[in-house]
Specification:
The chain is α/β, with parallel strands linked by helices. The protein has one domain (about 30-180): Glutaredoxin. The protein contains 5 helices and 7 strands; from the N terminus they run H-E-E-E-H-E-H-E-H-E-E-H. The protein has helices spanning about 1-25, 65-80, 100-110, 130-140, 170-180; strands spanning about 35, 40-45, 55-60, 85-90, 115, 150, 160. Strands 5-4-3-6-7 form a 5-stranded mixed beta sheet, with helices on one face. A two-stranded antiparallel ribbon has the order 1-2. The N and C termini lie far apart (about 50 Å). Keywords: Oxidoreductase, Peroxidase, Signal. This is Glutathione peroxidase.
């Protein structure tokens, strides 16, 4: 029992130290700890330093919800090359489930999403989460669900795509491939 407790303490200390080291080496807008969808686990986005990010505000009951399927395909095709897809469910446009378990079901069960989905949060206005505050300041806030923001690996360039831009469109795929070079 003592060995088990000691092991857990060492693992916890290691994780805390890793998180602090990670935060110290990340000096951009991704230095935030966000809760994952339907989980108590958090994700520090600094772990994706030097990788391009595709950040999307999502909703479970939108005409564009089917884009989850192509976002997943994009994720699977380019994840080994470094692309990180991050989904941010939001009810800012009144099309997200009230209960997080229902949001998770749409993402994980209905669409088989394996890329990181964060807990439901605001993506517009004063109460926007810190990621979308930054994206809004640098480009513009989402005008609807499934706005996509491609952030360069060095975090210096942000390309915004509106809801109508399909994840597997030539425009999006070309931008992703350029970001991965």
């Amino acid at each position: 029992m003592l060995n088990k407790l000691l092991t857990l303490t060492l693992i916890s200390s290691s994780l805390l130290l890793s998180s602090q080291v990670l935060a110290a080496t990340c000096d951009d807008f991704t230095n935030v700890e966000l809760r994952k969808l339907r989980s108590q686990d958090t994700l520090n986005l600094c772990q994706f330093k030097n990788k391009p990010l595709l950040i999307v505000n999502t909703a479970s009951n939108c005409g564009f919800t089917g884009q989850f399927e192509d976002l997943e395909k994009l994720h699977k095709k380019y994840k080994d090359q470094g692309l990180v897809v991050l989904g941010f469910p939001s009810d800012d446009f009144f099309q997200e489930e009230d209960d997080e378990k229902d949001t998770a079901k749409v993402c994980f069960v209905n669409y088989g999403v394996t890329f990181n989905m964060l807990a439901t949060s605001d993506v517009r206005g004063d109460s926007a989460n810190p990621i979308f505050k930054h994206l809004g300041d640098k480009t513009s806030s989402p005008k609807w669900n499934f706005y996509k923001y491609l952030v360069s690996a060095d975090r210096q360039t942000i390309t915004r795509f509106n809801s109508r831009t399909k994840p597997l469109s030539d425009e999006m795929v070309s931008a992703v491939e350029k970001a991965l070079q």
